[in-house]
Every structure is written in structure tokens, then in C-alpha cells.
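User: Could you check the structure of this?
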Amino acid sequence: MTSLSRRAFVTAASGVLLAGCGPKPRRAATAPSATGTAAPARPAANGVRALARSVPVRLRIPAIKVDTPVIQLGLGADGSVQVPPVTAHDRAGWYRHSPTPGQTGPSVILGHVTVGAHGDGVFRHLDRLRRGDRIVARLENGTSAEFTVTAVRTVAKADFPTDAVYGDTDRPQLRLITCGGPRTGDGYLDNVIVFAVLSAASS
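Assistant: Sure, the predicted C-alpha cells are below.
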């Protein structure tokens, strides 16, 4: 991702994450599609190479019993970043202007912690993940990208670590993000952020 593309992506994507995992995201600038020239694939520490671009269709997190379809999120007509709809059958959403899971760079997947009157959201227990836990993204081309959690952080939305979350990486990484911490009105004061790295791939 070029530095210009990265700046636009950060502006757009951070709008939804700082806004509070709810139906009222902050206004965001238009982000370019992540379909440009990819950085050369570099092996991770265990020798796993970056995967070809393929849209995620399902996400499994065994440690917290998550098994959810993945929808695509873009920008609304008003320029706001979309978030997953608040429904009884809550689903995670991949921000389609980020790399797909397994591509070089940080792939971003969002989920609600609660969905109003419907109760718990798909990422209700995201903060229970621990270093070493597995996350598996099933891709449209039939490949599965397996990630290993390296860190879980709860941060105040006012201090959202934009560079740590969206900064360029030379290997495939994953970011899962939801709300957390104390409630205030209809929202939450914090974000829960899971950092993970590609550790295996299978078809």
C-alpha cells in the first residue's frame, strides 16, 4: 500500500472504529480499493507466505466460540464508513478497503459487542482472547488463512492507536475490533483490539 493510499485508508477506517461500533459512524474520507499492486510476499517467522487476494466469507475463533459469516463493509452514501447492521443474527464485517486476510498488510474485521435489544454481538467476548489463540478466516477461493493472536488491547477511543492498528506491515496480519469498557449512553468508551499474524494456510 502506498503512503498516500495508507493515509486515505487510515482516515476512513479509523472513523468507524473510533465512532463506537454502533450504527452512527463518524464521517470518513473515501478510501481507495486495496486492489493495486501488492507488496512482494515475504514469509512470516514460520515460513508462511502471503496469500492471493480473496474476500473473506467466514470467521472462526474457537476459544470464544465464534463462527460467523463475514459481510463486506464499505462507505455509505454520505461518506461514512459502514458498520455491520444491528440485527438478531449478528455478523462480522470485513472493511473492503483493507487487505484481505492473508494478504500482506493489516486486514481489518469489525464486529459488535452488543446489538441493542437483540442482546450480545458476535464479538461480545473478544476481550477474552489470549496470546496464542487461533483465528481462522475462510476465503472465497476456498482457502483458509489461520492467524495466531499476538496481543489483545483495550484502549480508550480518544487514544485509539491508529499507527499500531493501520500502519504498514511487511507480512500478513489481522486486526479484530469491537467496543469495550464502560458504557456511556448508547455506546462504549473503549475499543478492544486483537492483533494477530498469519501462521498457516490450507485449501
